[in-house]
Fold these 4 entries.
Entry 1:
Amino acid sequence: MSLAYRAMCAILERDGKPVPSEISCRRFLRRYAAEHQDIVVLRRQGEKALKDKVGPFILRQDKILKVGDVIFADGHDLNFEVLHPETGKPHRPTLVMWMDWRSRMPIGWEIMPTESAVAIASALRMAIANLGKYPRVPYIDNGKAFKAKYFTKSESELRELDGLYARLGMTVQFSRPYEARTKIIERFFRTFDEQCQRLLPSYCGNNIEHKPAWRRRNEAYHQARKSDWIPTIREAAEIVRLYVGWYARQPHRGLGGQTPAEVFMAGRGAGVDTAELDRHFLWTRKVRPSRCGFTLAGMRYESDCLYGLNKDILVKYSWADLSQVHLFELDNTPIGQAAPTEAIHPLARHFGDELDLLKVQEANKRQRQLKQQTMNLARELDVSVQDSGLSELPWMRREKQSLRSVPKPKAKAEPAGLTPERRAELEALGKALQAAPTDIRPAYSAPEYFASTIDRYDFLFDVSVKQGLALAPDDAAWMANFEASDEFRDIAGDSYAKLRAIYQSRTEEALS
């Protein structure tokens, strides 16, 4: 004020005006500040201070609410250091907490290196499980993590793609930016800092003013007496759990002397279905499978139920357990499950052990079975042109030719010069050829090479069963031996038995 008075005196003396005493100016300023506090606060501290310190506030009657009607959520950087789970270095993680408004009871929380949708979802699931029912209105922060599409997206043709809040039937209320007074959970964070965080050896404060003495320069006395213990994420979560349990048993002035636990237990729900709750909190992603698999979170997932699919599907998964994911059609029809694939030894036969060889055998067996499945389905779809009805199409009709009588060919004249001796010799040679055993060739031509035993069997099955031709003795013996083997029974025994029955029924119908 003295500096302002001297500046005023210089201006008045320059303009030739009388200069009042400093005491008179001080009395005027005190009177003006008392009568125009809004102007003083606005000019000195800004609009936010004007709204927080001078403007009227709205009283909210929370006694008319029930437990679970409104729950608050916010993220808070802890004021003590915790070892980072990946780097092992001290850092300040984020505490995401949900609190019931009516009872002032913290009901769900999660600690993670940064505020993210994963931490918020985990804390919300814990809150609903502890609440015993689904809350009606979540009053949440306006940060981007709380506004993630996973929570808020509700304009979709598919309910399973809707935001989590919409799926749970909750109406979201976002707090205004930079207005902590709208969130009662901010008061809990201050209480938590005063009653718990300041007592920890790794307390660092949230600004320079609250920095502990051992973190300042030349504080050898405090630095020598400071403990080097820094909690891990798990230990920090246990600290929060113990404090919440103690806080819930303390009388609360805003509850008329009752404890948060007493009010909360009086209005707690009967419980929720944990299976349904888990389904709501599964993450959903749309993928298009290729060659029985897809990539999720940097891992390759495969499933036999994806064989032959070339369309978009939904994958539902939990970050807490990626050992198995659930597959659905876009209309939410279940397809099956998929698991991460495991790479096999490139030269298991030469350098691998028995387990490596077994993995290779299982992989080859799986490929053969899937291929055989397609081959069998393709054969079942095979029909002749007459059976398919294509012969009735205009461009495939054939005009019938009228039968004409063909004259009987005249007997050829015997060649001249054939002596009776030569004729007798040829007749004797013909009789000898008829009497000699002949090497009967089969009525089919087999390839010289087959890629596998199942390919050879498939060819012989087509010739003998479908075409009805007789097999050569060697082929018939090989086919009988292969049908008696374990390999045939494991791979395609049932499929070929069904095909044999189908072809036999068709043959019987044709004969009848």
Entry 2:
Amino acid sequence: MAEVGLLPIKKGSTVPEATILIVDDEKPFCYAVAEVIDQIGHHETLIANSVPEALELLEMRLPDLILLDLVMPNTNGLDLASMLRSKDAWASIPIVALSADTRPETKISALTAGANCFLPKPFTIDELRIIIQPFLLEKSCNRASDTEAG
């Protein structure tokens, strides 16, 4: 069963409430990133330590953003990115590919598989914030437009 961590939104956050799915086989890394996201000020973090766990979580809840490690045992992050892009319900979820492998061909493979961008490991809090904020702000704007229209 996938682990789910709920993190409270920080008061005065400049980015509205969001759900972020972290997919990485290294549990300590997932918890560290969840803590960073808490510092940035997002509301909910879902953690999956394998592709099957990620798929299980995606069936239950659609995140606003996915942070996806490319190198995992069995099914890797590239395969999951391709799966996400092939299913209508998941195709529009932004994906940030994560990897310590920063060779150009790795980045190209991630983007070709469907990732929106690539963030090399390790990264700083500021680097993560700069990468994810535009996706979450766009989600917020779309949600506000839907509310006004409806």
Entry 3:
Amino acid sequence: MMKTGCLFGVLVLVAAGTGFAEDGSIVAWGANGYGQCDVPSPNEDFVAVTTGENHNLGLKQDGSIVAWGNNTHGQCDVPEQNEGFVAVAGGGVHTLGLKFIDTGMENTSPTGVFQILSIAPNPFSMSSSIVFHSPGVSQVGLEVYDTAGRLVRTQDLGSSPAGQHSVSWDGRDASGAELSPGIYFIRLVSAEEEVSAKVVIMR
């Protein structure tokens, strides 16, 4: 269960361990003048939640967005083709959704730059491939963090020569258990620098 609190229209995500996100439901309480605590049915399969001024937003496993609360400016009217979203954010009286679009073009990297080129598929359910560029020979490690900042997985990638490399992550933690659906942060660390990117697990 994903617990949230509504206080004067502000939605607060409470991190409380993996057991609280297994069914992906939202619990909301507090000021409810615009119905911002009345989570629409079916209240399940949410992987992320955020808020605007007096409206709330939930991102579901299937990549759709659910919006409820104050709608005086149409901020809860999600456009058609409500699918493929990987992130959502709320402004005062507006809403933003981020989609992943595969251009079919290979990403290139300038030499001398340590960076993540792509993570695909993203969102994913079974595994995702992280493609990165290393500017020179270096020891590289993979770290995965949850939204509470907890380190849930590490992997030593060994020595990476200059060029493009790929590593897969199966969406599991250090013990081999499947992680709950939601947002995670991939961090690649070398001796000189580190880079990070967001990934979404959808079961």
Entry 4:
Amino acid sequence: MSLVLCTHYIVGILSIIFNIFLLIVVAKRTPRKHRMNGILIAQECMFMLASSLANFVSMQRLIPIPATTIFASMGVCNNVSPYFCYYFHVLTTSCSGQKALSGNPLVHVKFWWIPFSFFFIGVHITVAIWQSDPEVLRSLVDEFFREFSGDHLSINGHDSFSVPVIIVNSLYITGLPFLYISIALRRRSILALLDSQMSKISERSRQMQRNLVNTVTVHAFFSLIAVCPLSIFGFSLVIPIHNVEFLDSCFFFIQLHCALAPLVTIYYVPNYR
């Protein structure tokens, strides 16, 4: 087991603990008049918690064979079935995409992100159902990565590009990086406007608003962490990289984001009393 994978397990456990603790703190320390802000924080927290749980259970290792989407299940669910484990991988990536969509501050997004979400999830489910035969995938892995032949990895994924796979890959390689960057830039400018209007509200509400501005701003820049695994995945479609630490870092960055974001919120939430 690689150093990154061991760290992945530790960060995964902490991520689950932090997000559950955050839900409890928000429920107990958010005043009634600021309930909507608490709901927004809890919504993002639920996406991160689901992504953390799924990522921890599946613990996927990227296998970068060009023109394929192959993963090795390193988590506890590989004792059941690598085919079944792939659904947790789908849940991990779907939650990541859904959090990005729901967090975009652009007003017109409200009118299309819900139907797009159904399409987003539907394509992922289709991709999960039409997995390739594990034996075919294993033969490809043994051909390109002979160093993995003795590891008895639980292989899942696709040995070629079908239409649903192309759609999903296109979403992650081209769409989501720009969306995450947009969140970081646009959300900061919108919250800066809110910050300039603080003189019009009471001292108590001003403190609440200032904490919310700081929290969501840092979250926006944390979203840029997700660009790292998307870039690694994009490179893997054309370049067979044999560095195990590099391969395991792909999903580690997703877990790291889920662990860091609630820490920032927990730091500011006690002042919501």
